[in-house]
Amino acid sequence: MLIFILAKVLIKGTIEKVADNMNLPLECIRIDKVEKGNTYQIMNEILEHIQDNRLLIADITNKNANVYLEVGYAMGLAKSKGIENQIIFFIKTDEDGDANVGFDLQSYQQNRYKNTEELRTQLEAQLKVYYGKLIR
Q: Which strands, in side-by-side order, build the sheet including 27-28?
């Protein structure tokens, strides 16, 4: 299984830890480092990976338009297949605990974190729940 991440590299270690603890064959990739033996369009590669994999982890902290596009693509695929979204959202909060979420994603559950340790803790908990449901 491959987890496609639209987020920071620092969560790779957390995913690997959960994979080891739950004996899951998970792999993290960095899309711009995929070696195909030829030049390729990164956006096409991203969309292919979203299409081919179950889970998308997206950090929507900076309102990156590309991330929003990719999240929308994943949502559209899920809807066309008649399944729930397979997305875990993360967003960093400011000092007051507020986060600036784009309008279209405000109604979706987000994992809000203040620092790296909170991000790792929440990610680990979410992955255990997600994969725990699949393993049963």
A: 27-28, 2-6, 55-59, 87-92, 111-113
CATH class of 2-135: alpha beta
d(Cα 89, Cα 112) in Å, to the nearest integer? 8
CA distance 50 to 133: 20
Taking the domains of the chain in order of start, what are their residue ranges? 2-135
What pTM, to 2 d.p., does this model score? 0.82
CA distances 110 to 38, 70, 102, 107, 116, Å, are: 37, 16, 12, 9, 16
- Extract the residue ranges of the chain whose pLDDT is less than 50: 6-7
Please state, in angstroms and rounded to a whole number, the distance separating the CA atoms of residues 23 and 110: 26
